[in-house]
Design a protein that fits this description.
The structure is a single chain. The protein is mainly alpha-helical and 329 residues long. The protein has 2 domains: 131 residues; 133 residues, no CATH class. Strand 1 and strand 2 form a beta hairpin. The two termini are 34 Å apart. About 14% of the residues have low confidence.
Length: 329
């Protein structure tokens, strides 16, 4: 279990930790503190050491939150093992706890991604393995909940940074390491990378489809084509469209945003729309203004230029707004 895997390395370094913890406890007794209050200092020292190997890429607060998350995850795992019928009948509490753990881990992964450098890997390698153990157990517990009838839609997903860290198996500092770490760091020369973009795009498409079904009111999705203004219904050959291409946005902002942050920009509501597949395939990777400059494209695809230009302006405004919001966090 995650907590055991964390405590084991802590115990290996733990003689020193234990001595420090006991010293804190004894000092507390000498100062006249109660027995439990005195020992608390020792236990806090041990707890803080669980993710001490990640101290160069995680704040002490985040290290402690991960330790608490590991405990919570173990508790859910044990509940499923002991009483699966009860969990299957009412999984609300277990789903809530696992989602809280997942969100805490996602936040930690973002923090690691911003601070991790290839040169640090030898120093944080053990801590990253402990972090990966939690990622593994999250996936295992989520799978168990799904087997008990929990809908996948009820479970929070691991974010792109966590997935990137999870894929760092058996890597030591050196060959291959920089390529992976640059995917979760801000590197102004890194190549176009769309894993995070696609992960979020899939989620956005699912949300848009649900909204379109509600608009349709008859069980059939209802959209408005972003370039023609015409109504599209479920069954029409349409595609979800990034109005400004993901590659163009990635290259424009890779010098100041992480891959995950760029994914947020690419998939902001103003930049994701629906259009006929024939239009999407004809446009390909061309900039929309360049594609519209050909009169044949407008006439062949029944483009409403006013509608199309409005969609472009709206996308540009949404992109700038999202970038500003991210940079102000």
């Amino acid at each position: 279990m995650a907590l055991e895997k964390i405590i084991k390395p802590a115990m290996e370094i733990g003689e020193k930790v234990l001595k420090e913890g006991l010293k804190k406890g004894l000092d507390g007794l000498k100062e006249g503190k109660g027995f439990s209050e005195s020992l608390k200092g020792g236990f806090e020292t041990a707890k803080e050491s669980a993710f001490k190997e990640l101290d160069k890429v995680l704040s002490p607060e985040s290290q402690n939150e991960l330790t608490e998350s590991a405990k919570k995850l173990d508790a859910v795992d044990q509940k499923i093992a002991k009483d699966p019928e009860s969990v299957a009948e009412n999984p609300t509490e277990e789903v809530k706890d696992v989602n809280e753990v997942t969100e805490n881990v996602n936040e930690a992964a973002k923090e690691i991604g911003k601070k991790l450098d290839p040169g640090l890997l030898s120093e944080v390698n053990e801590g990253l393995q402990e972090f990966k153990d939690i990622l593994t157990q999250i996936k295992e517990v989520q799978d168990k909940l799904k087997e008990l009838g929990v809908s996948p839609d009820m479970l929070s997903m691991l974010n792109a940074e966590a997935i990137e860290i999870d894929e760092m198996d058996d890597l030591e500092e050196g060959e291959g390491t920089e390529e992976i770490t640059q995917n979760i760091m801000i590197n102004p020369t890194r190549p176009y990378h769309r894993t995070e973009i696609d992960l979020l795009f899939n989620k956005v498409k699912a949300q848009m489809h649900q909204q379109a079904l509600e608009r349709g009111g008859d069980g059939v999705a209802l959209y408005t084509d972003c370039y023609t203004g015409e109504i599209l219904r479920g069954g029409d050959r349409y595609d979800y469209e990034h109005i400004r291409s993901s590659e163009a946005i990635f290259m424009a902002y890779r010098d100041r945003l992480t891959n995950s942050e760029i994914a947020e920009v690419v998939n902001c509501p103003e930049n994701v729309a629906v259009t006929l597949r024939s239009i999407n395939q004809s446009k390909g990777k061309m900039r929309m203004e360049d594609w519209l400059a050909n009169p044949n494209n407008i006439s062949n695809h029944n483009i409403n230029k006013t509608v199309a230009l409005k969609a472009l302006a709206n996308a540009d405004n949404g992109i700038q707004k999202k970038v500003k919001e991210i940079l102000s966090r």
